[in-house]
Specification:
Blueprint: H1 20-48, H2 59-88, H3 96-100, H4 102-124, H5 130-136, H6 143-174, H7 179-193, H8 200-217, H9 221-244
Helix pairs in contact: 1-2, 2-6, 4-8, 4-9, 6-7, 6-9, 7-8, 8-9
């Protein structure tokens, strides 16, 4: 028996001491911090004349991405964390049965994402993932570059995104909707916020899987593991395509 809510259970009572106001403050801090980071690194780039042609492999772009995600995570923990506590944000470690859910959900989710992306390719023609260009500048990764990039894409990004989408946002939506509606709304927001139109259907599928893991476990960590696996496989696929010219 799983330790948390059934997805058809009613919303939780409005008893928490934090809500949309704290989220708005957090987003303002993220926006200001992000703007300062980008402007500061752009200014340094103009002075130092760094090469940014290789996307996130380029040190200034990688550093900007790293700082942005650390700002997001830090703002959540600084503004919402003291009021919410670990349980509201899903930061507590779940029962091991919830961790055991990850492999089957991941296999199902990846299969559905592959089918979804294949359908998108069939409907719109040539399917180009813009993330390949933004991560590498279209050039193959070295082994050291691949590992460095994985630290960000496969490590930091999943933790921070799950903290925001399945920690903060899922909890707030769950106050007003049952589990099924919360999972669907959270998945839709997760997909759209990535701002990559051709990837929205596949990201929506991933969001459904991540929301399901959050709802069933009450924790973000099963979703973090799923997200890490997904990003790792995607990164390795990109590296293989670039190495083979595929």
């Amino acid at each position: 028996m799983l330790p948390h809510n059934r997805v058809d259970q009613p919303p939780t009572p409005l008893t928490s001491t934090w809500g949309w106001r704290e989220l708005a403050i957090t987003l303002v801090i993220i926006g200001i911090g992000g703007a300062i980071t980008i402007l500061g690194l752009r200014t340094l780039n103009e002075i130092a004349n760094w090469d940014t042609s290789r996307g996130f492999i380029s040190p200034p772009v990688y550093l900007a991405g790293m700082l942005l995600y650390l700002i997001i995570g830090g703002a959540i923990l600084a503004v919402i964390g003291p009021r919410a506590g670990w349980r509201d944000l899903g930061l507590h470690w779940p029962q091991w049965l919830s961790i055991a859910l990850v492999p089957p959900v991941f296999i199902f989710g990846m299969g559905m994402m592959i089918l979804t992306n294949a359908t998108v390719t069939f409907l719109i023609g040539d399917f180009q993932n813009p993330q390949i260009e933004s991560l590498s500048g279209g050039q193959p990764f070295g082994s050291g570059e691949l590992f460095t990039l994985w630290i960000l894409v496969g490590g930091i990004v999943p933790v921070v995104e799950e903290l925001f989408f399945r920690g903060v946002l899922h909890h707030l939506l769950r106050r007003y909707f049952n589990g099924i509606v919360t999972i669907i709304l959270g998945a839709a927001i997760f997909a759209v916020v990535h701002f990559i139109p051709q990837l929205i259907p596949g990201l929506f599928i991933a969001g459904l899987c991540l929301g399901y893991l959050r709802e069933q476990s009450g924790s973000i960590w099963p979703g973090v593991i799923f997200h890490m696996l997904q990003n790792t496989f995607a990164l390795l696929a990109m590296a293989l395509m670039l190495a083979t010219g595929g």
